[in-house]
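Re: pantoate structure - here you go.
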Amino acid sequence: MKIIRDLAALRATSAESRQNGRRLALVPTMGALHAGHLALVAAARQAAETVAVSIFVNPLQFLASEDLSRYPRDEAGDLAKLSAAGCDLVWMPEVATMYPDGAATTVEVAGPAEGYEGSARPGHFRGVATVCTKLFSQTGADVAVFGEKDWQQLQVVRRFVADLDLPIRIQAHATVREADGLAMSSRNVRLSEAERAVAPTLPRVMQSVLGAIRGGAPLAPTLAHGMATLREAGFAPDYLDLVQPETLRPWESGPGRLLAAAKLGDVRLLDNMAL
Ligand code: PAF
């Protein structure tokens, strides 16, 4: 497994691995890897001859009020997991490599980037879209694998890839869950023992809301009841809403996606499920 920190070396390795029609699949990450990330690596293995994983805690997608230094980091552990998972190449740039002095270009996405995480974390998706555009360009990846766990992020990425005619295919992978249903996330390690015990209530409430809607219950009161149940369980819910899957516009009929964000202590949990 090659560990690359220099852009020229990355370009050379990528060009070499993509000779003779061989494809390169990228899994973009911010490290602190868990089984959910490794499932993306396994999917990338199926999608292409060469698998690259990027590890970069992207300052551009954190708000000024969010403590970037508290984001979990485990470089040695991540590299051991990636090596065992059969990753070929790890791209680990420094902040100065990604955003050199004088950098003045960002990628701003409207549509699916508006509302929900876009409102809760203004500028977050600009950071995500900018870093992903750069990662796609730097690696020359043919395909990039993203988890459905960050549903809005996935739609934002699909949107700018289509809008900018980027020559890359975006492949989604189903959310990987703990045995009790909690969606895997690097942030889960910050939950206290008591909070971790409460956390699976979020997917349980979502399942029950979906069950009620499928059964014909009226939307607004069902969502309001779901929010109240989360509050009673100790969450500070931000939103629980049913939207159209790709545009994130309000759901009326047909396919829908239930989106949820709720804080438990100071950890913000995100989840989503198909109607
Ligand atoms: O989902 C993440 O870990 C990040 O938002 C991503 C896609 C790696 C961009 O920094």
